Protein: DUF4145 domain-containing protein
Organism: Fodinibius salicampi
Amino acid sequence: MRIQFDNERFDIDQRPDECPICHHGIEPEEISFHVIEVGDVMRSDILQIFYRCPRRDCQNSFIGSYRKSTVGARVRGPFRLNSTAPQRTKRLSFHKEIEDLSEDFVEIYSQAHIAEQKNLLQICGPGYRKALEFLVKDFAVNENPDDEENIRKTYLSTCINNYIDDANIKSCAERAAWLGNDETHYTRKWEDKDLQDLKILIELTEGWIRNVILTKQYNDEMN
């Protein structure tokens, strides 16, 4: 794909197809460019294109940063889109049942998500693990209010084993805890699993908890 600014032409692999600020799919407008020349031989290595979001509700500008692969002093291929900035993190939405159950889970999970969006991958994992613990323990307290003090003090694994009766919640929460521990320990046990697997298991745990809450609600209302 070739783009042109007055007498300057550049071959790029793609335009950004999402605005990093409003997160809608777009065909951005090119406004201007800047080339950063690096290396002993003055070769064009980094291209920054100043874009504008065409959406009426947004209209923000942002920068698409492109790089070329280099071998020695030779530059090969088109400029390839590397990143867009500034990035405004996407707001997460949670079901009302989960928000009512555990405000702390919603807040902690949202903060971990922001860290992940900023590519802070070494710290978002422990954040997701902490969010899981608040979700499970708040649900356990909700189901066993007389044991609240013990639930708050006990280890997450013990809480899952002793206070979670639903088989689906127990299974998913247990495995989420295993992967969450991998995010906080020096050595990983589950080498074939990663952060995305942890998030999926937390989402499954959250979904099964909501199912239990709603099932109980409708059973009580329609007894």
About this structure: Strands lie at 2-5, 8-11, 29-38, 43-52, 61-71, 74-85. The longest strand covers residues 74-85. The chain has seven helices and six strands.
